[in-house]
Amino acid sequence: xTDQVRHTGGTGGPxxxxxxxxxVTIDGPAGVGKSSVGRALAKSLGLxxxxxxxxxxxxxxxxxxxxxxxxxxxxxxxxxxxxxxxxDWTQDPPAxxxxxxxxxxxxxxxxxDANVSTVAGLPELRAVxxxxxxxxxxxxxxxxxxxxxxGSVVFPDAxxxxxxxxxxxxxxxxxxxxxSGVDIDAVExxxxxxxxxxxxxxxxxxxxxxxxxxxxxxxxxxxQVVATLAALVRAKVGDALPGxxxxxxRAGVPCGNAV
Length: 259
Ligand code: DC
Fold this sequence. Notes:
The chain is α/β, with parallel strands linked by helices and 259 residues long. The protein is 45% helix and 14% strand.
C-alpha cells in the first residue's frame, strides 16, 4: 500500500481518535539518532515508523535535480505536490517514491545535506509535508514518527511525545565512531549550526513540546536509548501494545487504547 499526497478531512482514513490509534512522536536535533532509535523502537513495539526528515530531503533532491531554486517556496511546494511523494509500505524500511521512482539513494548526498535546512524552512513546502504526514498518520495509525515538529505541529494529540537530546559533542563523537577519519570538531561545529538553523527558523522551529518527555542520551548506548524509550511508551500506553493487552490491562490508559 502506498500513501500519496492528499488532503486530510476527506472520506479516506479513520478519524483521528479512532480505537487503536497509537502515535509516538520523537523530536530532537540533528544527529541525535532519532531515525535509528525510532526504527528500532517501532520494531520492538510492533509499530510502523515514519522518517519525516527523509521527506524534506527528497523535496531538496528533487529541487536540485530539476533546477528549481531551493529558496523559492511556491516552486518547491508545487514540485513536491507534482512528485506525488509517498512511501511504499510493502518494503522494509518503507521506500520513499517521487515521480514514481525510488529516491532513497539520493537523500544523504552532500548537496542535499547542504540545502535541506533551507528547503525545510519554506512555509508552503512545510504545509504540503504536514498534510501528507497527517494523512499517513490516518492510514497508519500505529506509528512512531520522528522529526522536528512531530509532537508540536503534526501530531499534537500523540499518545507519547519524546524529545531526544544529546550534547553537540557527544553527537559528533557518535558520528566519528560510525565514519572513520571524520574531524570531530568540524562535525560538532556543523551540528551546532544545524541546531541554530532548525531552532531559529520562523515556521515550526525545533522546540521541545511542553508535554514531551525529555530524554538526554549523551551518556547512553544505542540499546540503552531504545530500552529507555520502550519503557517510557509501555509505562504510558502498555495496554495498547500487541501482546500486552491482557497482561497489563488497567483503567485510564491516556490514549490510543486499542483493546
Ligand atoms: O533528520 P534529518 O537530518 O533527516 O532532517 C533533514 C532536515 O529536515 C533538517 O534540516 C531538519 C528538517 N526537518 C524538519 O524541519 N522537520 C521535520 N519534521 C523533519 C526534518
